[in-house]
Specification:
Helix content: over 70%
Shape: globular
Number of domains: 1
Largest sheet: none
Structural class: mainly alpha
Length: 205
């Protein structure tokens, strides 16, 4: 089943937003390089994180295209299992791991934990055993570390976007109303805005 023209005007731009929103970190890094080098482990790695997050969104767009942009329980985008969907999840995990490494990668446990999660995530995805657990662990770790480093409570709004993503996705699967497809994508990709704001507010003192 395909979405109608009206719905496509809502869903397509949101996916383009999700694709390009990581780029906001580029200007932020360039403008606050000195501040970040004093606060975090590796500023340069954040550029690679942006790349992987964008690659992940690209794979998601490709999967949605194969699903004719109609997400339901029977689609790969809906039930969460398909090659492109797996590459989407894996790329996002790698991007999030690189962010964590950039923040506190000088701690050996962090490097080894990220490496292990990256290795086991494809296996968990293929076996359909808690496939989103690695992303959840890294997401929580990133939020807590960002608060520790930048001391800005606004970073905790990332948990709010995660909660809304889950709510809207479950509603999408239950109702097959593709309006929630757009909302799911919007909130799933907006957490990075609060990392941007936390760094910006902290750097301005």
């Amino acid at each position: 089943m395909k979405i109608d023209a009206k719905m496509s005007l809502w869903i397509f731009p949101i996916h383009l937003y999700a694709l390009f929103i990581p780029l906001i970190l580029i200007s932020l890094i360039n403008e606050n390089e000195v501040f970040l080098s004093e606060r975090i482990h590796d500023v340069g790695s954040l550029f690679y994180a942006v790349l992987f997050l964008m690659v992940g969104s690209f794979f998601e767009i490709c999967q949605n295209h194969l699903d004719e942009w109609y997400v339901n329980e029977g689609s790969a985008s809906g039930n969460g299992y398909g090659l492109l969907d797996g590459l989407f999840s894996f790329s996002i995990l790698v991007g999030q791991c690189i962010i964590l490494y950039g923040l506190i990668g000088d701690i050996p446990l962090v490097k080894y934990s990220c490496f292990i999660l990256i290795l086991i995530m494809p296996i968990m995805y293929h076996k359909k055993v808690l496939p989103f657990l690695p992303l959840t662990i890294i997401g929580i770790a990133n939020t807590i570390c960002a608060y520790y480093l930048f001391e800005q409570e606004i970073i905790f709004l990332q948990f709010f976007t995660i909660a809304l993503t889950v709510v809207f996705f479950n509603t999408l699967i239950k109702t097959e109303n593709q309006f929630y497809h757009g909302l799911t994508t919007l909130f799933a990709s907006s957490g990075i805005i609060f990392l941007y704001l936390a760094i910006e507010l902290s750097s301005n003192g």
